[in-house]
Each structure stands twice: as structure tokens, then as C-alpha cells.
Design a protein that fits this description.
339 residues, alpha+beta, RNA Polymerase Alpha Subunit, Chain A, domain 2, 3 domains, 9-stranded mixed β-sheet, 5-stranded mixed β-sheet, 7 helices, YbbR, c-di-AMP_regulator
Length: 339
């Protein structure tokens, strides 16, 4: 009886039905970014010119729009199956959208280029600016891993490739080994990038950067004009370490001459000698970079000799005076005797 009363009474279920009706009639609009799919033989053909993703704006019942947004259970695609090699303007189509939804795809059309697909392996070259190395430093054999990459693209683009290269950017004045992942590029004869796909897209590049060194003894040599020829040189440093390229170090013997300029020296003095300048930039640098040199002119010895001579002269004069006095005394005594 209660069920009969509930069903037959006017207006009892009308509120619920009205609410459902209002919900279903509320519209909503949203824009989604969706991957664009290709319907084509991609193993045989290489297709370019299309975007990876497109935007679609859908509008319809709120619940349906929300469900579609959450599930994205529809596709946007290009049908290229019946198209020949070359360029084509193709409309983007959809499948799977509910018929109660309206939609607008942007862009509606795209221009694609269909070419025969080709895959080829290339060795990876390394191109970098050697001027970035610090003075005296040298780069060893470059290591690239992997040293070859697979290049895929239209056969016409593959033919344009002059070389596959990585261009590591070395910091200015680098003194240590360069070790980084670097992007791979396929270039034509003019150095422009070719539109192909590379696998892998980066490779590991290692460039050993070192400097050669050698320990040598030093010989202090007089340089410059001077009236004094009795110069002698002293330094606590007897050996130094020189650094440079392989060719520079090979050209250096077991000892090196260090010129000491005495043209402005008039007395005993000390000088700080820059070894790099003294060696005429034959090496990159030295350790230590400077040495202290004591320059002896021999003036102390000369002064001593002069003093000695003066003393001898004084003694001689005194001796002469004594002898004269002695003679005078003898003469007086002789006269007294005669008287």
C-alpha cells in the first residue's frame, strides 16, 4: 500500500526528476592538449611537418565534459595511408568523442611531408676550440662514448649529411680534463643542421688536458755592460721546475741559463728575478716563479786593499822619520866626541 501511495501520488518523484534534468542541461566548455597520432606506414615512410600535440575545445553537458577531460578516451589523428610521397595538406580528425559533445580542433589542417624512410650509422666527430686551453696545456686523445649514432630520416635529408658532430664548449683557460654529456648534431656541408632523428641524442665526451714538466738546474749568468768585471752571483735556489707543452719541455736541457742584468749595479745588492721572463717565455711557467739573487761587486775587497795600502804608506813614512832622527842623533854624538 505504501508503494502504491508513493507511485500514484502526484509530485512525489517530480523534484528528483527535475534536478536530474537541470544537471544534464548545464553546459561546460574546456580546452585539452592532445597528442596527434599518425595513420601511416612509419616503418617505410618518414613524415615531418606535423605538430606533436594539438588543442581541442570540447563543449557539452557538464558531467560529460568532465568525464571526457579526465579519461581522454578519444583520439585526434591524421590519415595518411592513401597519400603518395611529397607534401600534403591534411585535415585533423577525431574518433571516440561522445556525440553529445561539440568540438573545435586547432589547427584544423596541417601540411605534412612524406618521404621514404632511411636509417644509417655515422661516426661522431668532436669539434672544440683549442684556444680555450690555458697556456702550456695540451689536449690528449678525445674519448667519445658511444662513438657512433643511428640517424633516421627522409632519404633526401640523409644524403645532405656531411658529418655528425659534437661541439663541447670548454671554459676559457681550462687546466683539467673535460668530461661531459654533449648534444649530437647532424650537419650539411655548409654547417647547417639537417632535419633527422639521432639515436642517441647525446654522447659522453672526455678530453684529457695536461701539461708537461721537468726539473732542471740553473746557471746564473752576467748580462749587461759594466766597468766592473768582478761580479759574482749567489742564490739559495739551485733547481727549478719548468712547465710547458711537450715540444717546449723537449727543447729544454738538464740546466738553463738565467741572465742577471748588472748594467745598473754599482754596489753589492739583491735582485728578484722573474724566471719566466729570464727564460724568454720558452716555457709556460716555472716553480718557483721568481728567485732572489745576491750580486757581489767585489767593492769590499777593493776598499780593504786600499786601506791596507794606506797603512803601509803611513808605516813607511814613520820609518823614514825614525831613520832621520836616528841620523841626527848620531851626528850630534859624533861632534861632541871630536870636541
Amino acid at each position: 500500500m505504501w508503494l502504491f501511495f508513493f507511485v500514484s501520488t502526484p509530485g512525489v518523484g517530480s523534484t528528483r526528476d527535475s534536478n536530474q534534468s537541470n544537471t544534464s542541461t548545464v553546459t561546460k566548455r574546456t580546452t585539452l592538449t592532445v597528442p596527434l597520432q599518425l595513420q601511416a606506414d612509419v616503418d617505410k615512410y618518414y613524415i615531418t611537418g606535423y605538430p606533436q600535440n594539438v588543442k581541442v575545445t570540447i563543449e557539452g553537458p557538464s558531467a560529460l565534459v568532465t568525464a571526457t577531460k579526465n579519461t581522454q578516451n578519444f583520439n585526434l589523428y591524421l590519415n595518411l595511408k592513401d597519400l603518395s610521397i611529397g607534401q600534403h595538406r591534411v585535415q585533423i580528425k577525431e574518433s571516440g568523442l561522445n556525440s553529445e559533445l561539440t568540438y573545435n580542433i586547432k589547427p584544423k589542417y596541417v601540411t605534412v611531408n612524406i618521404q621514404r624512410r632511411e636509417t644509417k650509422r655515422f661516426a661522431v666527430d668532436v669539434d672544440y676550440n683549442k684556444e680555450s686551453l690555458a697556456t702550456g696545456y695540451e689536449a690528449g686523445t678525445t674519448e667519445v662514448s658511444p662513438d657512433t649514432v643511428t640517424v633516421t630520416g627522409a632519404d633526401s635529408e640523409i644524403e645532405k649529411i656531411s658529418k655528425v658532430v659534437v661541439k663541447p664548449i670548454l671554459p676559457k683557460g681550462i687546466k683539467s680534463t673535460f668530461d661531459q654529456e654533449v648534444l649530437v648534431q647532424a650537419l650539411d656541408k655548409n654547417g647547417k643542421t639537417v632535419n633527422v632523428t639521432l639515436n642517441p641524442q647525446t654522447v659522453h665526451v672526455k678530453i684529457p688536458i695536461t701539461i708537461q714538466s721537468k726539473q732542471v738546474s740553473i746557471n746564473l749568468k752576467q748580462k749587461g755592460d759594466s766597468n766592473n768585471t768582478n761580479f759574482t752571483f749567489e742564490s739559495d735556489v739551485k733547481n727549478i721546475k719548468v712547465f710547458g707543452t711537450q715540444s717546449q719541455i723537449s727543447a729544454i736541457g738538464d740546466s738553463v741559463d738565467i741572465p742577471i742584468d748588472v748594467s745598473d749595479v754599482t754596489s753589492n745588492t739583491k735582485k728578484s728575478i722573474d724566471l719566466g721572463s729570464a727564460l724568454g717565455n720558452k716555457v709556460a711557467f716555472t716553480d718557483p716563479e721568481t728567485i732572489n739573487v745576491t750580486i757581489n761587486t767585489g767593492s769590499t775587497t777593493s776598499s780593504t786593499n786600499s786601506s791596507s795600502n794606506s797603512t803601509n804608506s803611513t808605516n813607511t813614512n814613520n820609518s823614514s822619520t825614525d831613520n832621520s832622527n836616528s841620523s841626527n842623533t848620531n851626528s850630534t854624538e859624533s861632534n861632541n866626541s871630536e870636541q
